[in-house]
Please model this.
Amino acid sequence: MLTYDLFMDNHEDREKFLRIYTKYRAAMYLAAQAVLGDYWMADDAVQEAALKIICNLHKLDESDPLRTRGFVAKVARNVALNMRRTMSKEIPTEDEEISEMFPPNTETPESILLNQEMSDHLHALLSTMTVEHQEILDMVYLNGFKVGKAAEMLGLSGEVARKRLQRAKAALKKRILQETQA
Model:
């Protein structure tokens, strides 16, 4: 964190950056991890994204947490994509070819704990929703069924299932927004 102070001119910017980085670091990490699939590379991407966020700090409005989270996650994702693009241009050595045949386990204790906490939190939010909303969200997002298959399994028409999913997502978004603003 001390290194980031070198890039900021005033105290307000430092405080704003620290609040944003502390609050959305996990989202940045998950976005980078999804692209790169490697803990250490994702960590590098988050650090580079943090520098880009500092340069664009004036564009961030903390009063809109959903938009801020989306912005910082998108920056981290884009940095990770650039890193992956750069890596794909490099010519692999014999050692790298062997390591690709036997990829290391990329899950770290931190990522496992973070995923578990997010999963527990999501399940807690889902438990406060109506049964209809819980069913459709669970089938489509947690179990990976297509909306048509979920509709068939629930005995609904495709259009009713799509509308129910739309309403369930809106209700979940509303709960998340209420929680972040509290």
Observations:
- The two ends are 27 Å apart (CA to CA).
- The chain has a mean pLDDT of 81.
- The domain at 107-182 is CATH 1.10.10.10 (Arc Repressor Mutant, subunit A).
- Residues 62 and 76 are 18 Å apart (CA to CA).
